[in-house]
Inverse folding.
C-alpha cells in the first residue's frame, strides 16, 4: 500500500499527541485500535478510489454546459463512494447523522484524502462545516432538512463571502437581502471565488452567504443566509453561474462566479450578526487547511523520496552510477522536507484536539483555556501548512530535477495545486496581522502564555530541550517588543509575518521534541525521529533570523513610493 508510511506516521502522532490524555479524561472516544482502523480505511479509500481520478480531474477540469457545471469523468463515482462511507460526518453527533468521533481523528483522515486529491476534498470540507454550522446555529426545521443530506453527500454546501469589490474586506459587501413578509428573504447580488459553486455531484446546493439586510454599514449590517440553488420542487431559485475561473491548479474543483437574482433565502442566526455566526464555519474551514497542506506535502515528499532511490546519477566515473539518495544535497532536501512535515502534522493535530477539548470541557474555565490555545495555534496551522505544501512540492521538484518539471511525474501538479493554499481562508499577511493585533494585543497574549506553559512541561535537561529553549527565549523577547509597538502599528505589521513564522517554528520545535522523547524505537519511530532531529538542529538558526526580521520595523519600507516613479 503506497500510503502505508503516511498512515503509520498519522497513527503514531495520534498515539503520542500532546492532548491525548486530556481527551481521555474528558471522555472523548480515543481507542487506539479503533482510530487506527478508521485511518487505515481512510487511506485505502484515498489511494484506491480518490487518487486515480485526481489526474483525470486535473486534465479535464470542469466545464460549463447550458448554465450548469459538469465535472470530470469518474468524479461522481468517487464522491458517492466517499459520501456513502460516512466520511463527511465523522465528527458530527450521531443524532445528526454523523459518527460522533473526535475532530482530531477527522483531521488525520483529511490528510489522506487531500494527499489523494486536494481538489476533491474542496467539496467535502464545506459540506461538513456547513452541516456543523446548521446543527449549532440554524433553525431546527432547516437543520433537520439539510444536515442529514449534507452529511450523506446528497446535497452540497458552499461558503459565499467574496464579491468583485469586496474580497477579504467583508464590510464592503453589497449583496442585499430583503424580507419577503412570509418568513423568508430575497437575496440579490454577485459573489465570486466560490468553490464548487455549481456542479453535478449533488441534487441540490446550499449557499451559505453573507448579505446586507439592514441599513448599517460595515460588518454590522451583514446577516447570514442559506440560499438553495433550487427550490423544493427542483426549480431554479434565482441562482446562476456566471463563469468558471481558469486557474493555475485545483482544476477538478470548479471555482465559480455566481449571480443571485431575487433568490429565496433563509436567515441563520441573529440578523445583523452574520459574520459572527459564519465564524464557526470559517474556523473549521481554516483548520482543514492544515491537513490539506500537509497531505499534499506528504505526497510530494514521498514521490521525491522514492525517486531518489530509483534515479541513478553520479559517483566514480569508473563505477556504475549511484542512487541520487547518496548525494548529500539530496539528503539535506529530503530530511528538511520530512522535518517540516512531521512537525506541522503534530501542530495540526494538536490544534484539532484543542478544539475537541473546547467542545467537551466540563466548565467555562476549561473552555476558555482550550479555546485560547486553539485560537493561538489556528493561524500557525492554517498558514504554516499552506506554505509547507508549496515549499515541499517545490523542493521535491528539485529532487526530480528536470523530470519533475514535466507532467510525467506528479509533483508539478502538486506545486500548481498548492499555490493557492496561502491565499484562501485568509492570506499569510492577514493571518500574521490578526495574530499580533488580536492574539497578542487585544487578548494580552493569553493563548501564547498557556501554550508556552505546555511546551515547558515537556522539556527536560537534554540537548533537544536546550535547542528549543533558545527559540522560546527569542519568541518571548520578540513578543515583548511587539507588545511595545501598539502605538506604532506600522512597525509591528512590517514584522508580523516573521513573528508568525517564529511562533510556528517554536510550535513545530515542541512537536519535534515530543517525537524524540515519545515516538518509540521501531521503524516508524526511527523515520520520525530522523526528521525531528534535523528540524531541531536547524531551529536555532532559523528562529534567530525570524526574530531579527520581526523586529526590523517599517523604516526599510519608507521608499516604497519610489517604485511608482
Amino acid at each position: 500500500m503506497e500510503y502505508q508510511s503516511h498512515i503509520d506516521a498519522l497513527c503514531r502522532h495520534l498515539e503520542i499527541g500532546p492532548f491525548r490524555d486530556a481527551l481521555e479524561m474528558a471522555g472523548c472516544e480515543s481507542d487506539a485500535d479503533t482510530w487506527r482502523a478508521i485511518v487505515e480505511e481512510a487511506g485505502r479509500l484515498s489511494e484506491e478510489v480518490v487518487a486515480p481520478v485526481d489526474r483525470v480531474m486535473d486534465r479535464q477540469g470542469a466545464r460549463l454546459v447550458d448554465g450548469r457545471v459538469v465535472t470530470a469523468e469518474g468524479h461522481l463515482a468517487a464522491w458517492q463512494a466517499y459520501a456513502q462511507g460516512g466520511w463527511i460526518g465523522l465528527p458530527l453527533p450521531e443524532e445528526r447523522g454523523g459518527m460522533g468521533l473526535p475532530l482530531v481523528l477527522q483531521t488525520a483522515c483529511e490528510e489522506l484524502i487531500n494527499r489523494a486529491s486536494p481538489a476533491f476534498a474542496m467539496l467535502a470540507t464545506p459540506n461538513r462545516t456547513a452541516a456543523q454550522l446548521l446543527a449549532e446555529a440554524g433553525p431546527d426545521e432547516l437543520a433537520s432538512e439539510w444536515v442529514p443530506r449534507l452529511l450523506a453527500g446528497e446535497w452540497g454546501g458552499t461558503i459565499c463571502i467574496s464579491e468583485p469589490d469586496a474580497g477579504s474586506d467583508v464590510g464592503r459587501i453589497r449583496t442585499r437581502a430583503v424580507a419577503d413578509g412570509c418568513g423568508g428573504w430575497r437575496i440579490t447580488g454577485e459573489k465570486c471565488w466560490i468553490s464548487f459553486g455549481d456542479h453535478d455531484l449533488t441534487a441540490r446546493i446550499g449557499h451559505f452567504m453573507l448579505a446586507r439586510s439592514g441599513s448599517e454599514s460595515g460588518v454590522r449590517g451583514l446577516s447570514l443566509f442559506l440560499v438553495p440553488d433550487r427550490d423544493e420542487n427542483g426549480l431554479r431559485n434565482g441562482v446562476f453561474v456566471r463563469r468558471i475561473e481558469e486557474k493555475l491548479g485545483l482544476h477538478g474543483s470548479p471555482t465559480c462566479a455566481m449571480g443571485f437574482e431575487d433568490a429565496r433565502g433563509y436567515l441563520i442566526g441573529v440578523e445583523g450578526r452574520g459574520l459572527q455566526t459564519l465564524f464557526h464555519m470559517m474556523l473549521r474551514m481554516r483548520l482543514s487547511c492544515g491537513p490539506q497542506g500537509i497531505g499534499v506535502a506528504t505526497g510530494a515528499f514521498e514521490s521525491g523520496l522514492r525517486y531518489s532511490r530509483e534515479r541513478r546519477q553520479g559517483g566514480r566515473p569508473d563505477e556504475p552510477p549511484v542512487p541520487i539518495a547518496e548525494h548529500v544535497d539530496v539528503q539535506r532536501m529530503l530530511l528538511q522536507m520530512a522535518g517540516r512535515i512531521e512537525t506541522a502534522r503534530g501542530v495540526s493535530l494538536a490544534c484539532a484536539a484543542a478544539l475537541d477539548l473546547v467542545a467537551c470541557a466540563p466548565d467555562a474555565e476549561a473552555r476558555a483555556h482550550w479555546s485560547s490555545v486553539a485560537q493561538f495555534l489556528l493561524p500557525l496551522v492554517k498558514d504554516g501548512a499552506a506554505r509547507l505544501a508549496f515549499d515541499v512540492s517545490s523542493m521535491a521538484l528539485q529532487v526530480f530535477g528536470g523530470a519533475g518539471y514535466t507532467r510525467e511525474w506528479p509533483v508539478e501538479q502538486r506545486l500548481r495545486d498548492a499555490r493557492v493554499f496561502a491565499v484562501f481562508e485568509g492570506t499569510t499577511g492577514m493571518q500574521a496581522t490578526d495574530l499580533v493585533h488580536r492574539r497578542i494585543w487585544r487578548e494580552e497574549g493569553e493563548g501564547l502564555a498557556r501554550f508556552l506553559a505546555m511546551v515547558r512541561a515537556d522539556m527536560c535537561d537534554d540537548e533537544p530541550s536546550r535547542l528549543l529553549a533558545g527559540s522560546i527565549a527569542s519568541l518571548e523577547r520578540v513578543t515583548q517588543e511587539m507588545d511595545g509597538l501598539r502605538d506604532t502599528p506600522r512597525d509591528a505589521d512590517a514584522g508580523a509575518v516573521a513573528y508568525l513564522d517564529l511562533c510556528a517554528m517554536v510550535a513545530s520545535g515542541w512537536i519535534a521534541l515530543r517525537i524524540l522523547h515519545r515516538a518509540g524505537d521501531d521503524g516508524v519511530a526511527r523515520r520520525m525521529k530522523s526528521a525531528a532531529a534535523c528540524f531541531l538542529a536547524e531551529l536555532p538558526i532559523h528562529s534567530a533570523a525570524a526574530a531579527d526580521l520581526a523586529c526590523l520595523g517599517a523604516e526599510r519600507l519608507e521608499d516604497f513610493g519610489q517604485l511608482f516613479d
User: Anything to note?
Assistant: The domain at 4-151 is CATH 1.10.540.10 (Butyryl-Coa Dehydrogenase, subunit A; domain 1). The chain has three domains: 4-151, 156-272, 427-557. The chain has a mean pLDDT of 93.
